[in-house]
Amino acid sequence: MGTLTFRPSEQQHLISVATSLDKPMEERTAAASAQFDMETRFRLLASRGSVEKGLGILDTIDQKFA
Q1: pLDDT tens digit string along 8-42?
Q2: Nearest to 30 by CA among 64, 66, 62
Q3: Separation of alpha carbons 24 and 1, rounded Å
Q4: What is the rounded distance in angstroms from the CA atom of residue 46 to the CA atom of residue 2?
Q5: According to the model, what pLDDT value does residue 63 have?
Q6: Which one-letter DSSP state was computed for residue 8?
Q7: Closest Cα to residue 42, out of 30, 56, 32?
Q8: Please, are residues 64 and 34 in contact by the beta-carbon 8 Å criterion?
Q9: What's the 3-state SS for 11-48?
Q10: Where are the domains of the chain?
Q11: CA dihedral 51, 57, 63, 66 (to 10 degrees)
């Protein structure tokens, strides 16, 4: 079995890489969550037969994520 040793400069580099990825990942997660919520709402309204409201939600999705 081997041993993995990090030098302080390597640790600092890994920490800076990890923190630089935090913001983009948070933004993508928020966008994916919003898209999922809108699709779920659309499907619920569509199952209830509210075509106008469902199409309105699709327009909202197109405007926000186009």
Answers
A1: 666 666 677 667 777 888 888 988 998 899 888 87
A2: 64
A3: 36
A4: 58
A5: 79
A6: H
A7: 56
A8: yes
A9: HHHHHHHHHHHHHHHHHHHHHHHHHHHHHHHHHHHHHC
A10: 29-66
A11: -90
Rounded Cα–Cα distance for residues 48 and 33 (Å): 23
Cα–Cα–Cα angle for 28, 20, 17, rounded to 5 degrees: 125
Q: Which residues, 6 or more positions from 57, have their beta carbon under 8 angstroms from its beta carbon?
A: 38, 41, 42, 45
In this prediction, residues 35-64 reach a mean pLDDT of: 82
Owner of token pair 């302080």: 8
d(CA 4, CA 40): 46
